[in-house]
Each structure stands twice: as C-alpha cells, then as structure tokens.
Amino acid sequence: MSYLSFVLFTTVVSLLTFEPIIEVIPIPLPTDLSQSPNQKLKELITSARSQIDQLQKDEGSSSQFLSKAWGYLGSIYDVHGWSSEALFCYQHAIRFERQNFRWLYLLGRLTYTTQPDKAVESLSRAIKINPQYTPAYVYLVQALRRIGDIEAAKKQTKRLQQLIPSNSLAYLWLGELAFSQGQFKQATQQLQMALKFNPNQNEARTKLIQAYFAQGDFESANRYQLYTASTTEHQEIEDPIWESVTDLGLSSRWFLERANRYMKQQSFRSAAKEFSMIISVADNDPEIWLNYGICLYQTKQHSTATTILESALALQNRLITEGQKTDFGNLEAQCHYHLGLIYEQNNQPDRSIKKYQKAVDLSPSNIIYRRQLAQVYWNMKMYQIAIEQYKKIINVEPEDEKAIYRIGLIALQKGNLEKAKSCFSRIVSINPNHTRAYGALGLTFFQLGAQRKAIEAYEAILNIEPNHQQAQSMLKKISNID
Q1: What range defines the domain where residue 425 resides?
Q2: Which residue, 197, 212, 228, sits at the end of a domain?
Q3: Angle of the 168-180 helix axis to the 150-163 helix axis, nearest 10
Q4: What's the mean per-residue pLDDT of the chain?
Q5: Would you list the DSSP string of 44-56?
Q6: pTM of the predicted model, to two decimals?
Q7: Measured between alpha carbons, how far is 303 from 346 in angstroms, rounded to an integer?
Q8: Residue 93 — pLDDT band, cuts 50, 70, 90?
Q9: What is the pLDDT of residues 246-285, one digit of tens each?
Q10: Structural domain count, the chain
C-alpha cells in the first residue's frame, strides 16, 4: 500500500470512528442550599439542573433549548437571591441565544447596581431587540447614572418619558439630572410635572424645594415645604417578565409578594392560595392575616374568613400586650369592618352593627365604614339612628347623594316638607339625572300645594326616562285635580 493510500485509509477510518467533543459546562449550585429546609426549592433546582445536564449530554440539543434551560435555572437563583449563580446562568443563556431579549434584560436587571457598565451593555442590546419594553429603560437609566454618563441617562429618560407620559418617574429623573447640572429652571419644570402626575412623590417635592432655594425663590420653597407628604407613593410600572420570574419564588417573601400582587389585580382566589402557604409562619404580622381573611371573604369562604380575621385581631392584641407594637389603627378597623360585612351577608345584623361600630370608632373619618353602618340601621328600619350616621357622613362629604336623599325621605315621612324640599333640591343640583330625587321633590311640592313645581319635577323625570310610569301617573293625577 502506498503512503498516499495509507493516509487516505487512516483518514476515512478516523472520520468513521470520531466522536464529537461536547463542551460540558459546570452547573453552579449554591453552597448554602443544603442548609435550607425548603424541600420544594431543592427539588425545583435539582430538576432544573438535571435538564441542563441532560441537554449537555445530548449532542442533538439545540442552542435555543440550552438557552432556555440555563435562563430558567438563572431565574430560580435570581429570585431567591443567589446573584452570582444567577449571573453565571444568564450569561450562558445569552451565549447560546445572543438575541434573546428576556435573558439580556434579566442580566441587566440583576447587575445594574453591582456591575452597571455590564448592565448598560446588556440592557442596550435588549432595547435594540424590543424598544417598547418600559422596565428596560428604568434599569438602563439607573445604570447610566451610576457610571456617570449623564447625557446618555437624559437621552434614555426622555425615551422612557415618551413610553409612559403620565408616569411621574421620568419627570423626577429628568429634574434630578437637570439639577445635578445646575439647570435649576429646567429642573423646576420637570419636578413640577412629576408632582402633577404623583402629588405624593416626596423625592420630587424635596428636590423641587432645593431647586427653588437655588434660584432664590424662598417663597415657593417654603410653600412646598408646608405640603410635604408624610409617605412617598410610587407609581408602579408593570414588569411582566420579572413577575413571571417571581412566580418561581418558593420562599415566604415571594408567596407574600405574589399574594399582594394578586390582591391588587383582584384575583382573590389566587391571592388566598399564596397567603395559605405562609400563614403558619406569620406569627408577628397581623396584616398578612387580615389580607388572607379579606381574600377568603371575597371568595365567599365566610366561615374560614371569620376565623382568620378574629385571629388577626387576637394577634394584634397579643403584640400590643407584649409591647412589640402599640397601635395597629387601620388594620384593626379593617378587621372589624370585614367581619361586619360577613355578619351582614349572613343575616346577623346585630353582630354586624357591633363590628361596623367598632370600625367607625377606630376610624371616625372613614366614610365607607360609616355608610355600611348606616345601611344596616336603615335595613332594620331603625331610621332615626341611620339618619344620625348619614348626617355625620354629610359633615365629611357634603355632596353624598344617598345620605342627603335618605335624610330627605325621613323628613318627608315626618311631614317636615321644607326640609325634604331642601334635601331633594340639593340632590338634583348635584346630579340632574337623579330621577328618584325628582320624584320625591315632585311629591313634596304636591303636598305643599305647589302643583306647578310638582309638574316641573315630574316632567324632568320624563325628560330623562320618557316611559317612567310613576311620573306619568302623578302628572295625570295632578291634571285631574286641576
């Protein structure tokens, strides 16, 4: 055999017997996982790691499947606070699928405080893929500010402002950036807009006061100081990608966060399920018990809701007795209020009255509680007591239509026609389409002998509801008298 033939032969043999070398990437595992009592979390991580391991062994695995598997494990680590492990996984998810928006975004979100320069790179790439995803700009701007690139931060904040023009956040940041560059007039304009869209944003108010002082406008600065809100309320920006990551959370923190999110979405059944996972360890948090009880009430589980709400009250009393907290204020009032709702809906008016009254005593300015208390008295035909509650409602909300209407009805029933006329006239001035108030006003005028006024009131009803039978009947009755 010639040398050339030998070379060709050995080459063919080697090609036939060659096994491709598949790179096996070590899969990270948190060192403290073994100490965790959370068995479900351990099982979730084991399953996710096994999926990657199997894909790495399968030479036919696609890059897309590998990217998804690495990103999934990274999300589990991310939501449970294992940042370095999550970082490693996200990086490999992107390695296998470089144009995957989700993993680029989550990597930037993870690193915007600790590695802002890397976050800028990841988030900029993500935005090129999906320039409409608002949260990406939120973290990109913060990363740019951390590396001191103010002009780029301003540019991206303006793009954020275009995406959410009625959210105060972009105006706040533009105001802060202008202030940092000594552009106090421009800062003032942006911060005023921030407060227009969110009057309770303390950061904007504080920075605006500083901007006024910097311009020598002490009068405006002092005026804003007088109205400083006690708490800051932020306008939320929806982040469906991160919400889907939090759905992987199996710690108390994430059960609670998901429960609160579901409550805001009024998905009370889902919220109740999340609360049930943590209620046994919520020994020092009556708010969790309260919210769990509210969710159970909203899903018509009245018996269990009653037990949970009463437990919330008992927990509050225990914490006060132990000196851990001295005042639960609104929490206690809400417990009594929801117990009142349960008793009312289960035909126990006496018990509901006691609970509503307790809620009102704890929170006298809460109109919702007082309305419900007045309604129960009204339903029980305890009209005079109900009227006293309605009068207190009007002291707080002078244009409360139901309160004025019912005070007028009792006045009409008692023959106090001038009082009744005043009440019903007041209602139709507030709400010109209130047909019942026009009907009561027509009857009042009729009893006063003011037939022309009565006709006008009933005709007003027909202008709103042309087929209103009672108004037609009263007009016919008045015409027969004439």
Answers
A1: 404-482
A2: 228
A3: 160
A4: 89
A5: HHHHHHHHHHHHH
A6: 0.69
A7: 10
A8: very high
A9: 999 988 888 998 999 999 999 999 999 999 999 887 777 8
A10: 2
202 in any annotated domain: yes
Report the candidate in 133, 131, 172, 166 with the shortest Cα–Cα distance to residue 154. Answer: 172
Are 90 and 107 in contact, with CB atoms under 8 Å apart?
A: yes
- Is pLDDT at 434 greater than 90 in this prediction? yes
pLDDT of 16 higher than 80? no
Last residue of a domain, one of 190, 208, 228: 228
> d(Cα 142, Cα 177) in Å, to the nearest integer?
11
Residue 481's domain is classified under what CATH number?
Answer: 1.25.40.10
Q: Distance between CA atoms of 444 and 458, rounded to whole angstroms?
A: 11
| Single-letter amino acid code for the residue at 80 | H
State the DSSP code for 289.
H
Nearest in space to 245 (alpha carbons), one of 254, 233, 237, 236? 254
- The sign one gets for the Cα dihedral 56, 62, 68, 70 is positive
User: Is the residue at 341 inside a domain?
Assistant: no
Residue 248 maps to a domain: no
Q: What are 446-479's pLDDT values in tens digits?
A: 999 999 999 999 999 999 999 999 999 999 988 8
Q: DSSP secondary structure string, 193-227?
A: HHHHH-TT-HHHHHHHHHHHHHTT-HHHHHHHHHT
284 part of a folded domain: no
The string of pLDDT tens digits covering residues 183-233 is 999 989 988 888 888 887 888 888 989 988 899 888 888 887 765 544 556
Please compute the mean of the pLDDT values over residues 69-92 and round it to a whole number.
96
